[in-house]
Amino acid sequence: MIGMARGNLAKPKICVAGAGAVGIALAARLMLGGYEVGLIARGDAVAFVRNNGVRLIDKQGAHHLFPEVGEAADFLQADILFLCSKSHDLPGLALAVRHLIAARTIVVPIINGIPWWYFDGLDGNWAGRHISAVDPANVLKHLIPSRQIIGTTTTMTVERTDRTTARTFNPLQMTLGELDDERTARLAGVVSVLEQSGISSCIPNRLRDSIWTKVVRNLISNPLTAITGATLRENFGNAHLAAVSRKMLDEVLPVVTAYGASPHYS
Which residues does the UniProt record annotate as the domain Ketopantoate reductase C-terminal (predicted)? Predict the structure, then answer.
């Protein structure tokens, strides 16, 4: 077993679960920040990473690093656990890493879309509701206590060019918050870790506004890009496409408002 437990956010033991593009980039950046990182991979990817390391190509250059790597069962509990997978793979990942989550472990799920925990930490009519579309069997809600989650939305645009190489030429940015939007010491600690690792991080006044901002952006831009082949710059810079985008925004906003959120847009 690879020991990953310490309980000290000044120099935490960190696990990154998922060796895709975002997982590789995050693990590499954290190591460049001076942190001890365990990278959880599956199958023959473990031996491949162990033998070849991971590579990150970003705005700061090309980096080649060798994280501790293993299957989930090879690791002990972590201080910070980053979950880096597609939303539909999260229940399986949560089952695999559940033994890593101690009472003190901070869990940071890096996912797109509306997260399963969205209604946790809220007051009023929406409090505690379950989103079956993203957690149909309640696996995530059962295995990952909401009190241990730091929510996030990320604008890390990363591609994996081969099995162990991630490439990005955009700034790495993350928005993080407690589920009740409180400013806590542990939240500040996670932000500090990311900032020291070269990932620009901020704490919004309302985390769910930031989540909806990205969801709305995706709802508008992804269909247009798929149909026209236009880039994001063209979607919003071309007068005709910008007008279509505005109409789509007008359709989406009532849904967002119904859930009490206010996305940022211009």
Answer: 207-261
Kindly report the three-state secondary structure assignment for every residue of 126-167.
CCCCCCCCCCCCCHHHHHCCHHHEEEEEECCCCEEEECCEEE
**Contact between residue 22 and residue 86 where contact means Cβ atoms under 8 Å apart:** no
For residue 45, what are the CA distances in angstroms to 13, 162, 193? 22, 12, 27
DSSP-derived 3-state class of residue 233: helix
Residue 48's SS3 state is: helix
Angle formed by the axes of helices 207-228 and 239-258, to 10°? Answer: 140
Choose the weakest-confidence range: 59-73, 129-143, 146-160, 230-244. Answer: 230-244
Q: By CB neighbour count within 10 A (0-12 exposed, 13-18 middle, 19+ buried), where does 139 fall?
A: middle
Phi and psi of 151, rounded to 5°?
-80, 155
> Shortest CA distance to 106 belongs to which of 175, 24, 179, 42?
179
DSSP one-letter code for 172 = P
Q: Given the structure tokens 């001076």, which residue do they identify?
A: 34
Q: What is the pLDDT of residue 9?
A: 67
252 within 8 A of 220, measured Cβ to Cβ: yes
Amino acid at 64: H
Averaged pLDDT for residues 186-205: 96
CB atoms within 10 A of CB 216: 20
Residue type, 34: G
Angle made by CA atoms 182, 183, 187, in degrees to the nearest 5: 110
Burial class, 152, CB count within 10 angstroms (exposed 0-12 / middle 13-18 / buried 19+): buried
Paired strand residues for 108: 82
Where would I find the beta strands (DSSP E) of the chain? 13-17, 36-40, 54-58, 61-65, 68-70, 80-84, 106-110, 150-154, 159-162, 165-167, 173-178, 200-202
